[in-house]
Write a structure and sequence with these properties.
This protein is α/β, with parallel strands linked by helices. The chain contains 12 helices and 11 strands. The strands form 4 sheets. The chain has a 4-stranded parallel β-sheet with strand order 4-3-5-6, sandwiched between helices. A 3-stranded mixed β-sheet has the order 1-2-9, covered by helices on one side. Catalyzes the conversion of 3-deoxy-D-arabino-heptulosonate 7-phosphate (DAHP) to dehydroquinate (DHQ).
Length: 353
């Protein structure tokens, strides 16, 4: 069954389409949104190897002229050097400001292709076709696009809303187990900050049975994010809640060179770390961290926060995008389903490390 959520922002309204098998209908949807011919598809070698040929053929059969720019899978492709290469290949393929770019892949591809679309020729329209769980329930919605610097994650970026998001839960069947679990960390995040009922439902399921509920989970998470983005598109207040676990999660990812931990694994570790610190300060309900840890373990996610050099951790935290010159906004939860923003002075960061 086709479900459609509309995201309404100040400058644009766009649909999120959610339906099993919809990837094979993407060309029809795109034809309703775009009357031109040229389409640049940005994908990684893994996703392109599975879906690329058929996706391009469907576009050709609908009268489009697609071409593909392929990058290596993984976080290291979210770099300025890869971004430059993608932009060059898109231009060499004939992309103009009146054409369309499609991000076909997971969160890295969505961020990379979206940032290219936002900046190339001062803006080319783009569509998100997310193929990982983490992208379907989180990064493809809301218009945050970015690349990384060696000094930190997502430090060069923009807010640039897509023309549409096309989500097919069936494509998750090709995910490796680790990357399915990776996405479940973000699902757990949504439950922690906004939906106690979802959290309790996840506690009753497991890694196998949860896959049968993907339509419900994707709709629930996308609805939460849609509602938050409509209130706070530019991440000045309410939208910061979506970063629960991310502040320290990004530290973990960067510290280990974006190779030891996936993004979701880092977020999970960050959620447990922040909640434990909050319990020690009597600002989080007792037992909350144990419940979060138990749920992460249920979905095969790591829970042992790694040892890191405190000075390096503090230096990374000071670059966090949620910070000002003297303060940093940390995302906490009072209890399951109740997230809030806690502003602290940067010189008090050590109590959270």
């Amino acid at each position: 069954m086709l479900n459609i959520l509309n995201v309404v922002t100040k400058d644009k309204t766009y649909p999120i389409y959610i339906e099993r098998g919809i990837i094979s209908k993407s060309a029809e949807i795109i034809k309703d949104l775009y009357s031109g011919k040229r389409i640049g598809i940005v994908s990684d070698s893994n996703v392109n190897g599975i879906y690329g040929d058929e996706f391009s053929k469907d576009l050709e059969n609908a009268g489009f002229e697609p071409f593909t720019v392929e990058v290596e899978p993984g976080e290291k492709s979210k770099s300025l050097s890869v971004y430059e290469r993608v932009c060059t290949k898109l231009l060499e393929g004939g992309i103009t400001r009146s054409d369309m770019i499609i991000a076909l892949g997971g969160g890295v591809i969505g961020d990379l292709a979206g940032f290219a679309a936002a900046t190339l020729l001062r803006g080319v329209r783009f569509i998100q076709v997310p193929t990982s769980l983490i992208a379907q329930i989180d990064s493809s919605v809301g218009g945050k696009v970015a690349v990384n610097l060696e000094i930190g994650k997502n430090l060069i970026g923009n807010f640039y809303q897509p023309e549409a998001v096309i989500i097919d839960p069936n494509v998750l069947s090709t995910l490796e187990d680790r990357f399915f679990s990776d996405g479940m960390a973000e699902v757990i995040k949504y439950a922690c900050i906004k939906d106690r009922e979802l959290f309790e439902k996840l506690e009753k399921l497991n890694i196998d049975s949860v896959k049968e509920c993907m339509d419900y989970i994707i709709m629930t998470c996308c609805s939460i994010k849609r509602d938050i983005v409509q209130i706070d598109e530019k991440d000045k207040g309410e939208r910061m809640l979506l970063n629960f676990g991310h502040t320290f999660g990004h530290v973990v990812e960067k510290y280990f060179g974006y190779s030891k931990y996936t993004h979701g694994e880092g977020v999970g570790l960050g959620m447990v770390h922040m909640t434990r610190k909050g319990e020690n300060m009597d600002i989080v309900a007792p037992g909350t961290s144990d419940r979060i840890q138990g749920l992460l373990e249920r979905y095969n996610l790591p829970v042992e926060y790694p040892q890191m050099e405190s000075k390096v951790v503090e230096d990374t935290l000071r670059l966090d995008k949620k910070s000002s010159s003297n303060d940093i906004n940390l995302i906490m939860i009072e209890a399951i389903g109740k997230g809030y923003i806690k502003k602290i002075r940067k010189n008090n960061l050590k109590q959270f490390i």
